[in-house]
Amino acid sequence: MNFLTIGHRGVMGVEPENTLRSFVAAQEAGLDAIELDLHLSKDGALVVMHDTDVDRTTDGTGPIAEKTLAELRALDAGRGERVPVFEEVLDAVHTPLQAEIKDKQAARALAEVMNRRGLADRVEVSSFHDEAIAEIKPLVPGVRTALIASRYGTDIVDRAVEAGAETVCLNIRRLTLEIVERARKADLRIIGWVVNTQDQLRLVRAFGLDGATTDHPDIKRTGRFTA
């Protein structure tokens, strides 16, 4: 299997994160997939943003869940970009997507879009929330899912299997050979994050991982040459 490079919120190292500009840049850089984050607005729109509030990434303040889509649209998400909705990303790029459910309530809204547009082959659904992964599995036939973890132990493998995930996306700072071996025995694919330097890239290649999530598109160019 080829080593996958996944653009973190597009290419957030060089463009405003989770914007159409960032996603298009990731596609133009030739990244194999693009990761993005999903929340629900006050009026139920499936919006693309990482944090629970808009303060860090826009010129506004306050929780996403307390703002309508129109109010979110009025914000500057960086370099004049607007907060996109999920379907705009689907139309702006053709690269495979990894859609992370940040707000557990977004699972059903995502499932509706995926079924309506036939996205099971194009979109992998990921989340830190085991229950979000377990919930979307029966809602979208054939969907591929990934359980994300930052602070974890060997139990992450059991959690992923129980939730029905095919992949684990793991913070490389806590990665151990024991966890990698347990994941392989469970037939789980392993993606490491966040990989932004050559030393980090060499680490994930040495562990034999299936891919890396990165903020920087040049990892794509160097990844296949690093043993």
TrEMBL record:
Q: Which InterPro entries match?
A: GP_PDE_dom, PLC-like_Pdiesterase_TIM-brl
What does the record list as coiled-coil region(s)? none
Q: Which Pfam families match?
A: GDPD (PF03009)
Read off the SUPFAM superfamilies from this record: PLC-like phosphodiesterases
Domain GP-PDE: start-end pairs: 3-224
Originating species: Streptomyces tibetensis
This protein is called Glycerophosphodiester phosphodiesterase
